[in-house]
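Sorry to interrupt, but I need a hand with the structure work. Could you write out one complete protein record for me, on any chain you like? Could you add the entry underneath, on a fresh line?
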Amino acid sequence: MIKAQGLRCGYDKTEVLRGLDLHLDSAELAVLIGPNGAGKSTLLFALLGFLKAWAGKVSLYGKDLNAYGRLELAKQIAFVPQESFFQFDYRVYDVVMMGRYPYLGMMQSWSQADHQMVGKVLASLNLGELSQRYYSELSGGEKQRVLIARALAQDTRYIFLDESLSQLDINHQIDIMQLLRSINQSQGKGILIISHNLNLAANYADRMIFIKSGRILGQGTPQEMMQEHLLQDLFGTRLSTHINPESKVPNIVYPGK
C-alpha cells in the first residue's frame, strides 16, 4: 500500500498540497480528478518520489519513500507520462525494453529473460506488428499503448499515469481505459490515473478521488462520488447526472442551450 499522511509540498515557496491524506491499494484502479491547479500532478510526483515532502510523509509498504533508492523504487512503481519525447528516435521494441533498465546491472547487456518479457508484453497489448516501427511514426493512441507496454515491462506493483487520455480521440480514450481495466483485473496491478473525463472515470474506476486546492475533497466508488452536490463542490458549476444504461453508474449530462 502507498500512503500519504499530512502531506505538504509544492514548488519554490508556493505550497500546493496542504496536509493531504491518501492511501492507494495495490490492486485497484483509481482515478484522480480535480480542476486545473488542484494539485493532481503534484500529488502524483510526490507519490513517485520526484518531489520531496515539506511536511508529513509518503510510505510504500510501511517504509518511508525517502528510504528507497531510485532503482529499488523503480521496481515498485512505473510512470506513464502524457507523452514521452526522446532525443533520438527509437523503435517500439527498444522503447518497451527501456522498462527493463531497473534490472540491468553494471556492464550487463539485455538477458534472454528481458527479451522474453518484452516479447510477452508486446504480444499482450497487440503491439507485435509495430515492434520495428519508429515511435515518432505512431498515432497518439499507439504511443500511449507503447508507453503502457514500457511500464508493464518494468514489472511493478503500481502504474501511475499523468493525464494519458487528454490528447486522444474518444475511441482511443475508451481503448486505453479498457486496457487499464484489463491489466488491473488480470495482473492485479494498482493503477492510478489522472483524468478530466468524468464519465470514463466513473465507468471504469474502482475508486474516484476528488482533489481541490491541494486537499482531498472526497473519495469513494463512482456511485458514491458522481453526485451532483459533490461535483458542484469540486468544479463550482452545476452538473446533472443520470444512470448510464451501459455501465449502470451515474454519468454527467452536459447542459444544452
About this structure: The chain is about 30% helix and 25% strand. The chain has a mean pLDDT of 92. The radius of gyration is 19 Å. The first helix runs from residue 40 to 47.
